[in-house]
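Sat 14:20. Reprocessing the chain from the morning session after the first attempt stalled halfway. Input below, unchanged.
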Amino acid sequence: MDTPQIIPKEISWMAFNAKVLQEATDSGNPILDRLHFLGIYSNNLDEFYRVRMATLHRLSHLGKKAYDILGYHPQVVIEQIHQIAIKQQSEFAKVYDDLINHLKNLGVDIINVEKLDEEQKEFVNKYFTSKVQAQLMPIMLSQTQNFPKLQDNVVYLAVEIIKHYKTTPEYSLIEIPTNKLPRFIIIPSTNNRTAIMFLDDIIRYGLSLIFKTFDIKELSAYTIKFTKDAELDIKDDVSETYSDKLLQSLKKRKDADAVRLIYDKKMPKSMLLFFLKKLKLKQNENIIPGGRYHNFKDFLQFPHIDTFNAGLQIKKTFVPKILENNANIFNQIDKKDILLYLPYNKFASFIEMLRDASIDPNVKSIKITLYRLAKNSGVIDALINAARNGKEVTAVIELQARFDEEANLHWSEILKEEGVKIIHGIPKLKIHAKACLIERVSKQKKVLYAIISTGNFNESTSKIYTDALLFTSNPKITREICKLFHFFTKNFDVPSFNHLIVSPFDIRRKLKKMIYFEIEQAQKKKPAFIYIKVNNLVDNEVIQWITEAALSGVKVILLIRGMNAIKPDGIKGLEVRCVIDKYLEHSRFFIFANAGQKRVFIASSDLMTRSLDRRVEIICPIYDTQIQKNILDIFNIHASDNVKARIHDNNLQNKYYKTKNSKPIRSQFEIANYLYELDLK
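Finished this time. Tokens:
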């Protein structure tokens, strides 16, 4: 089969983020959720420019070699993304205006300097002088020989200062200190209404106090934000430790080139040209005109007002009955495998298991992989407690978890001081697998317990990401998890796996084998299907295998949340959709018909070249027949979604998936009900 045409992954990512923006427009969502979706969209776009656009810029300098790597010309895609970004910026502004009007209807006013009454002016003046002014350090650009190093993804007010008897304006930059003060401040209001003011506007109100030593004729301020290349260049130098190399690279990230400038479109042209020249940016390259405010990710911390509570709510998270009433979790796992499905089930059960292990005299060792951790991590606390109680604790901490590098260095030092053995990954392989292994003695026999997860061991994300955690003492799995941790210690000793499917060793090969087995079954006119739920599908070979399977009569359903390069139009039997809703779909499932003996897997891996060839990832089989059924049920509920599912087509139109079934099926709500009812049985 010829290599199929693909959608550039960066373009497909922009379509994914457009779906997030769609959620902000959905009047069926509670107003606070809609504001949060604006924040998520903004935060996603920042990271996209810092990573993927920065990579495209780098590749664009490689000429034909870049085409050979990607299968498309990076410069062409850069220009397409620029047009898409401008269009989405316009749509974003409309959504924002609509939400502001909706807030007004709910009795909440977003006000600026021009709309303050006398009481409000007095409050704002006092707030500015008592809390804000001391945090502001203006940079006078006309007084600096070199343009200052500006922080990435920080909002600045670019101030134009026009003095009496001077025709040429001066410029100043003021960082809006959202790391020290809230972005949104509730100010006094009347008539049972709530008034909220941006910190930006409180600073605007105080501009005359900031520049009181100047002979001011006119002051004006415009919001700007820079986004920098976030790729890390880590040199091979055997004389340095990996952590030292990483620290040096993190310092260089702060000096990286700007890859995007967002500015208030009302900014005078002469002022814009001044900043473009100083930042060495071309006027047509990732220069995005915007509105009065930037960094909408701060809407994730928008104040909660009582009137926001309206709207359909998902059932509260719960602890499964099998783990309730202070049950000994090890005894429960001995009886049967347990699956937690977050955030419907509480992540606290995993913390509780680690805590129990830390004080259980029968537990001898704990090994765990750590990729991203919560700011206040109960996982870290439990590991420290285990080490203090004499357990042998090993933590494999991936230092190249993007944007968490400094945090992971910090956690490494803390754990090391407490006697935890730290392993910092493997040269040229990023460890993305999520696994924990506990060794315990029971009835004078060594028993291994494994926890395999599709996502990070992170309390914060566990509240908003859907992920599956398998708790098992099945030796088929635990022995191979043990092999994996041995490999982390002795990289030269490459293990073989009969049950786990592990990259970079055999995911590509075994995945192809399972797909082609389904093709063989379809050619024999026997039932054959492939169901896959992952975050990203962009590997060309995998796309080719899946396309061939569908063309051969295999029923293929793909639920792909993020980047998706496959072109499905015209391929009978291939359904490709994406669910965007209250929770971030992060769980990964692989399900195969397998001639009537279904094979069901959970995974840490997406279908990306880096995941298959340059990372350590796990695809873990589910052997418990009840859990197999549960995962298949969950997948089918997702595949039946006719409220929040979008169809993935060649043109990335993001049309909603509708069915003849008159009953609305909103999968995240249905799954919550399914798991709740399942636990009652």
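The radius of gyration is 27 Å.
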